[in-house]
Amino acid sequence: MTGEDTGAEVTPRPLLVTHDLEEAQHYITDVYIPHNLQTRDGRALDFKLRYLASERLTVGHLVYGADAELLVPPMLDCYHMNLTLSGQTMVSQKGRWAATEAKQSGVLFRPDDPFTVRWSPEAVQYAVKLPRRPLEAHLSKLINQPVERPIAFDLGFDLASPTGQSLLSAVNYLRVELSRPGGISEMPLARDQLESLVLTQLLLTIPNAFTELLTAPSQPAQRGKVRRAIEMIEANPQAELSLGDLAVAAGVTGRQLQRGFKDTVGMSPMAYVRAVRLDRVHAELQEGAGVVSVTDVAMRWGFFHLSRFAQQYRQRFGQLPSETVRQVLQR
Predict the structure, then answer these.
(1) Nearest CA among 195, 205, 86 for reference residue 131
(2) Which DSSP helix (H) or strand (E) runs through 86?
(3) CA 227 → CA 50, 235, 257, 269, distances in Å?
C-alpha cells in the first residue's frame, strides 16, 4: 500500500458477523494482520466488524462480545490505533502496559514490536490501521524534515482531553462520511482533506518523539515564504492542498506557516485556501448565472457539504449563492 492517492473510490464493506473463533480470526487477519485469537471465558463470540479502507488508513468499528485476547506479531509496515468507545481493554507491547476505558483512553501500537490486546466482553472500539509510509510522510511535511525511522509513540494516551476528543470526533466524522453513498468516498479531494485532518490530530494528540517539535513555539514564516504558499494556492486552488503540502512548498514547518499566515493575511493557510475557492465559486456563478448549477460549481471547487458551503459563502459575500444568481439575472 502506498501513500499516493490513486483516486480510487472507498467502497463501504458489509457488516461482518460471526460467533466462530476461527472465522473472526480470519476476518481480522484479512483486514488488519495475521494474529492469534483466543477467548479466556469460554463464551461464544458475538463478533461484529464494519470497516472502510482508503489509501492512508483503515477504520473499523469492532466488537468481540467476549473476553477475547489477541496476540499480534510486529505489523512492520503499519501502526495500529484503538479508540475505546465502551468497555475496557488491557494491552502490552515490549514491556509497556496500558489500560483503556470508554471514551477516556486509547492506545497506539508501534510497527516494530509484537503486542497483546485483551478485550472485555462489552468492549467496542474504533480499530484504525495506519500504513507507515503515509503517516511518516505526513509528519515529515509538518516538520519540514525527513522521518527515517518508526515514530516512537507512547503506548497509551488520553481521549478525554480536548485534543483526544478532537481525535475521536475526527475519526468518527471520517468514518461516517466514507460510509455515505455518493459522498466523499467518490471525491478524492475531500477524502484527502479528512484523512489529513485525522493524521494531524493523531500526531498532536498522542505523545511521541516529535511532539515538542510539533507543538513548541516557533518563529513565523517570513513574508516571502508565505507569498510562495499563497502563489501556490492561487495558481491551483482546486488541487489537494494540505497544510503539509503548503509547508513543503514554502520550505518551513506547518506551525511556522500557520503563524506566518496569521501575521500576514490574518487567517490560517487552510482558511485562505477556502477563501480563494469561495472567490472562484462566486466568479463562476456570476459568469454562468442561469446556466450553471450552484451545486455543481460548489462541488467542483471542493465544497461537498452544501449547507456549510452556503453559510461560508454568506459570511464572505453577505448573501447566499442563490441570491448571487438571482441578482445577476435581474440586471
Answers:
(1) 195
(2) strand 78-86
(3) 44, 12, 10, 11
Cα–Cα distance measured from residue 20 to residue 24, given in angstroms and rounded to the nearest whole number: 6
The DSSP output letter for 114 is: -
DSSP string, 254-308: HHHHHHHHHHHHSS-HHHHHHHHHHHHHHHHHHHSTTTS-HHHHHHHTT---HHH
pLDDT digits (tens, 9 = 90+) for 38-59: 998 888 899 999 998 887 899 9
Q: What is the pTM of this model?
A: 0.74
8 A C-beta contact, residue 298 and residue 321: yes
Mean pLDDT of 66-70: 96
Q: Which helix (DSSP H) or strand (DSSP E) does residue 144 occupy? A: none
Q: Please give the grid coordinates belonging to residue 41.
A: 471465558
Domains and CATH numbers, the chain: 16-205 (2.60.120.280), 217-266 (1.10.10), 272-329 (1.10.10.60)
Relative to beta strand 16-18, strand 47-53 is antiparallel
Strand order in the sheet with 58-63: 16-18, 47-53, 58-63, 124-131, 78-86, 105-109, 156-158
Mean pLDDT for the stretch of residues 122-128: 97
